[in-house]
Amino acid sequence: MHLQLGSWRDRHGLTRPPGRWTGAAAAGLMLLLASCARSEETPPHLTIGWTPMPAVGRESVAEIQLNEAMARPVTGARLRLEAFMTHPGMAPLSAAVEEQGRGRYRARVRFTMAGDWVVRLQGTRADGRRIDVQDDVRRVRPVE
Amino acid sequence: MTTPTFGSDAFSWPLVGAALRWKHARTTLQLTLLAVAALMVLHGLAGPQLAPANLATVLTWVHYRGLLIVALLAVGNLFCTGCPFILARDAARRVHAPTARWPRWLRRKWPAIVLFVAILFVYELFDLWALPRATAWLVLGYFGAALAIDTVFAGASFCKYVCPIGQFNFVTSMLSPFELRAREPATCSACRTVDCIKGRRAPEAPLQVVRRGCELALFMPAKVGNLDCTLCLDCVQACPHDNIALAVRVPALELADGRRRSGIGRLAQRWDLAVLVTVFVFGALLNALGMIAPVYSLERQIAGAIGATTEAPVLSVLFVLALVVAPALLLGGAASWSAIVTGTSIRRQLLAFVYGLVPFGAGTWAAHYGFHLLTGLFTVVPVTQSAVLDLAGQAWLGAPRWTWVGMQPGTVFPLQLGLLTLGTMGSLGVTYLIAERESPSRAIAAAAPWLALTLLLFVTAVWMLTQPMEMRAAGALG
After folding, report:
1. Does B393 reach chain A within 8 Å, measured CB to CB?
2. B391 in contact with A at a CB cutoff of 8 Å?
3. What does each of the 478 residues of chain B score in pLDDT, given as a tens digit?
4. Does A124 touch chain B (CB under 8 A)?
5. Number of domains, chain B
6. According to a count of CB atoms within 10 Å of the terminal CB, is the N or C end of chain A lower?
């Protein structure tokens, strides 16, 4: 089949590379999505203490402390905890988070696999502003 | 060895054939992958830097790697067919058409081998699987490299000599069940225009190429196997006689084919290809080793022995042991043994038999990447939901369903073992075929050390599979 192509393209020995409009549309979509992205909240400071230390198959209690700037505790937040392995594609964990007062929260987590985890706390403050903070949990090992 | 006849031509199949021969088939696939790559980059750069919740890391390290090997083993080099880097390159060539030729002294796989090892090393050193932004930059860097090289040098220099993913695909595609072949050799013999390699010219303007030929210098009548074939279908579109088939074939048989190959030469005369295959095989074990618990104690032992306090020198030693010392001892030992048995040179035995290990290597990669794909197959759903929420601020696809994951790790083990076993059986078979070719009268004796080596590697891989996994983002030293 003979193709009728523009002369400049033929001079360079090239066939028609389609996708000009699709490429422009994709770029436009990216810009649109980027411009729609919400503005960042200043995240609260997160500290998590574990009792006992996390181990595979053993329940550990996460004592969570959330403070705003100037050490002002985050009170009345509605939170959920999710724990992810650092390697993508593995099953995450989720746990309910109970408020203990003065910026302290508590969750019970049973890690399911050895390795490095990231704990992510998401939810909203009492005034509706979003919270999304995370902390590393390194080297979770089997119970010895 | 004579060319085996093939039973079927996929181009003649209903629907599939028409879809494959559609002139925009490749571009459609490329545009799809380009859109996915754009989303990955956008989310990697602007989304949360939490690898399991970011499209850049999830799609790259779970889905792309897994689907890549599935496609290679089930069909062929489809990800080279749909490579979006080439789409970007073609667009750039509309502005600037390259005229330079790739330097003759670089017309081997050495640059790609160095990059292949470098990517494996960087992946372990910086824990790339846990870094969305770095993964996005890696994708962008790939686009940049393909653009930079292929807007300076004509042909598919990047694909043939530089791209490490391409080399991985080329080696694995030797096991693919499909191959582009001349349908009727007599038609090729009578052909005077050789459009499959030179490109189709406009009759009224013979200097104008209207359909490009093979950019990887694979001349269809002399093409043997899938090595260096990107399955771009340029030859199919260019052939004026419609004489190219996507033939069903016996996978892996080409590994024992000693004929001269167009654009490549004889496998048994290419040190670079032998080293590429060695990195492919031993790199598969090394890459999987990084996932299991014993690697921590091994790294600590190495650190103690060399007095290192950072991971880079420890990993360097590990890489040298796995990719240089172990292959030198094992391959050198097997080659020495078969050289003594057959009365030929060690070099000849090494360059002939190393290809027999390719099925085992592919089985190991498939067992590893198949694990991630199957255990994380559905994570793309909550991560996409999360990405929409991250990028648009609205849960247009609903709240992320993080419970959508995939198979339980334990249930994947039989499949992994099956893939390893299948690969090992393939290696045993191919090794025997190579021995029959090299030493027809002493085939079993010549093959014996290589068969033993294959079984040793199989036992090693099975041992690794049975070790407790430890998904890590930091090495033993922190």
Report:
1. yes
2. yes
3. 444 456 799 999 999 999 999 989 999 999 999 999 999 999 999 998 999 999 999 999 999 999 999 999 999 999 999 999 999 999 999 998 999 999 999 999 999 999 999 999 999 999 999 999 999 999 999 999 999 999 999 999 999 999 999 999 999 999 999 999 999 999 999 999 999 999 999 888 888 888 999 999 999 999 999 999 999 999 999 999 999 999 999 999 999 999 999 999 999 999 999 999 999 999 999 999 988 888 888 999 999 999 999 999 999 999 999 999 999 999 999 999 999 999 999 999 999 999 999 999 999 999 999 999 999 999 999 999 999 987 888 889 998 898 899 998 889 999 999 999 999 999 999 999 999 999 999 999 999 999 999 999 999 999 999 998 777 655 545 4
4. no
5. 3
6. C
Place of tokens 């209903």: B14
> Inter-axis angle of helices B358-375 and B409-438, to 10 degrees?
170
- Same domain? B205 vs B297: no
Q: Which fold has domain A45-142?
A: Immunoglobulin-like (2.60.40)
Whether A89 has its CB under 8 Å from any CB of chain B: the answer is: yes
Do residue B198 and residue B283 come from a single domain? no
Q: Give residue limits of the domains in chain A.
A: 7-36, 45-142
What's the rounded Cα separation, in Å, for the pair A2 and B306?
66
Q: Is the CB of B399 inside 8 Å of chain A's CB atoms?
A: no
Residues 62-101 of B with CB under 8 A from A: 62, 87, 90-91, 93-94, 97
B136 in a domain, yes or no? yes
**Sign of the torsion formed by the C-alpha atoms of A12, A15, A16 and A22:** negative
Residues B323 and B397 both lie in one domain: yes
Tell me if B211 and A139 make a contact (CB, 8 A cut-off).
no
Taking an 8 Å cut-off on Cβ atoms, the answer to whether B393 and A36 are in contact is: yes
**B387 and B280 co-located in one domain:** yes
**Which residue segment(s) compose the domain that B50 sits in?**
10-177
Please check whether residue B405 lies inside any domain of the structure. yes
Q: Choose among B30, B208, B293: nearest Cβ to A10.
A: B208
Q: How many Å apart are CA B335 and CA B352, to the nearest integer?
A: 9
Residue B240 lies in a domain: yes
* Contact by Cβ (8 Å): B196, B213: yes
Chain B hits for A134, CB-CB cut-off 8 Å, are: 50
Q: Say whether both B172 and B192 belong to one domain.
A: no
CB atoms < 10 A from the CB of B309, how many? 9
Q: What CA–CA distance (Å, rounded) separates B98 from B364?
A: 39
B384 Cβ contact list (under 8 Å, min separation 6): B55, B397
Tokens standing for B224? 């043997």
Domain-located, residue B249: no
| Residues B274 and B203 occupy one common structural domain | no
B210 and A CB contact within 8 Å: yes
Bridge partners (DSSP) listed for residue A121: A81, A133
> Burial of A20 by CB count in 10 Å (0-12 exposed, 13-18 middle, 19+ buried)?
exposed
- In A, minimum Cα distance to B373 occurs at A89
B363 with B407, same domain? yes
Residues B217 and B69 reside in one and the same domain:
no
CB contact under 8 A, A90 and B208: no
Its pTM stands at 0.89
ipTM of model: 0.76
Closest CA to A30 of B136, B369, B21, B178: B136
Residue B34 near chain A (CB below 8 Å): yes
